[in-house]
Amino acid sequence: MAATSRWQYLDRIRTVKGPFTDDDFDGSVVPETMDIMKILVIGAGGLGCEILKDLALSGFKDIHVIDMDTIDISNLNRQFLFRKDDVGKSKAECAASFVERRVKGVKITPHNNRIQDFDEDFYMQFAIVVCGLDSIEARRWINATLINMVDEDNPDSLKPLIDGGTEGFKGQSRVIFPTVTSCIECQLDMFAPRAAVPLCTLATIPRQPEHCIEWAHVIAWDKEKPFPKLDKDDPEHITWLYQKSLTRAQEFNIPGVTYSLTQGVVKNIIPAIASTNAIIAASCCNEALKIASSCAPSLGMEENYMMYSGNESIYTYTFKHEKKDDCPVCGTLARPLTVNSKWTLQDLIDHLAERPEAQLKRPSLRAEGKTLYMQSPQSLREQTASNLAKTLKELGLESGWEISVTDAAFVATFRFILRFEA
Ligand SMILES: [Zn+2]
Q1: CA separation for the pair 139, 248 (Å, rounded)
Q2: What architecture is domain 199-266?
Q3: Is the peptide bond before 19 cis (omega within 30 degrees of 0)?
Q4: 331 CA distance to ligand 1 centroid (A)?
Q5: How far is the CA of 327 from the centre of ligand 1 (A)?
Q6: Alpha-carbon distances, residue 14 vs 9, 27, 192, 366 (angstroms)
Q7: Residue 107: per-residue pLDDT
Q8: Buried-most residue among 137, 325, 344, 365 (CB within 10 A)?
Q9: pLDDT higher for 367 or 205?
Q10: Which residue ranges does UniProt annotate as crossing the membrane (predicted)?
Q11: Facing residues of 319 across strands?
Q12: 3-state class of 364 per DSSP?
């Protein structure tokens, strides 16, 4: 009795006929379906801890979690499933056993792995995938994998992907029905890489503590070479940068340089705030509950993207992000790419890394059946490296030609139609 009364309020939502349930719904099936339904959580960090707790308390009984990270002492202020004794242990394993202890009847299977360690057969066993990641690259990988898995003759091959993300006081949650609605790659330009501070600002007129730290990191380190190679995990190296930054900040009367800020800027750590994680994780898990039980319409087919901003007061906005026909992952058309014929192939490669909708760091390029540059194997890289200094014109490329770009980090081929600037 105690076991069922624990869920009685949840079951009022899950089993009572409502405006969004099917006509023949009698309320008896949902708990059973949710009891056996497998759901996958990717990431057991700030968002992942919240997601695991929320899913377990929302009636999911068979949860898997993937995370290859180990627990660091700095995680403990917000990753509340971990204790001091857990430092150094696997996040996935500690999170799973904590939630299992607290919520009886829930099974959580941890995987101390990279997502790329698993194949389609593994991902096929889940009904829903929920991501709580801080890496765009990992999101792009799972997005492309789930889209590749869709088989029109097998409705079970379509796995709803729920993605949460936070940065400081801002966050978003979105629901993707692979191949049907706008995907993570369609939405990539919403996540432009952070603009670099111009070198001249660093060198001449710093205005923020971060500028002083970047100055120490980029300019002072190179000039003085206090150690042969910068190791961002070595406290001695970070201390050197911290002291340099502090001296510079004092010169310009800029407050706010601390050791931990220095570490954050140098390691490019995105600030994480416990309550933003809680808000975004909660909204992701409500969508999972709605998809699993049909108790209310979920984000997805129409409105599919909720953005939250707590930077200035509070603001949320939910909208429909449209699928793109020229999305390299879920679309069919090649994307136009404006280039200049005087660019070298290296310029083009740098451009692909910076463009918000491409963000390809290690691309290999082919054009009309001809290899322009290959990152691997090494023999091909050496053979094609001489092309990097040649201009697009010298390489014989013409406006209107299609180039295909692959990057070892992704399972997609990116197709672009060259448009030469007049
Ligand atoms: Zn897409």
Answers
A1: 38
A2: Orthogonal Bundle (1.10)
A3: no
A4: 6
A5: 5
A6: 9, 7, 39, 52
A7: 97
A8: 365
A9: 367
A10: none
A11: 305
A12: strand
pLDDT band at 1 (very low <50, low <70, confident <90, very high): very low
Cα dist from 212 to 6, 196, 243, whole Å: 54, 14, 10
DSSP letter at 202? H
pLDDT: which is higher, 139 or 201? 139
Q: Could you list the active site residues?
A: 200
Q: Which residues surround ligand 1, an ion (CB under 5 A)?
A: 183, 185-186, 327, 329-330
Most confident of 92-96, 291-295, 340-344: 92-96
Q: For all residues of the chain together, what is the average pLDDT?
A: 91
Q: What is the whole-number distance in angstroms between the Cα of residue 321 and the centre of ligand 1? A: 10
- Cα 241 to Cα 125, 164, 266, 328, 406, distances in angstroms: 48, 34, 9, 41, 37
Q: Which CATH class is domain 3-191+271-319?
A: alpha beta
pLDDT of residue 202: 80
State in Å: Cα 343 to ligand 1 middle: 29
Q: State in Å: Cα 178 to ligand 1 middle.
A: 8
How many A from CA of 293 to the centre of ligand 1? 26
Spell out a b/e string for 341-372, using b for 16 or more CB atoms within 10 Å of the CB, else e.
Answer: eebbbeebbebbeebebbbbeebbbbbeeeeb
Domain ranges in the chain? Answer: 3-191+271-319, 199-266, 335-420
Query: In CATH terms, is domain 335-420 a member of 2.40.50.140?
Result: no
In degrees, rounded to 5, the angle at the alpha carbon of residue 175 between the alpha carbons of residues 170 and 180 is 140
In 3D, which of 197, 237, 198 has the Cα closest to residue 220?
Answer: 237
Paired with 358 in beta bridges are none
Between CA 235 and CA 139 the distance in angstroms is 31
Which residues, at least 6 apart from 9, have a Cβ–Cβ distance to it below 8 Å? Answer: none
d(CA 343, CA 346): 8
Average pLDDT for residues 262-278, to the nearest whole number?
Answer: 86
Q: How many CB atoms lie within 10 A of CB 164?
A: 27
Entry field: residues in the chain: 422
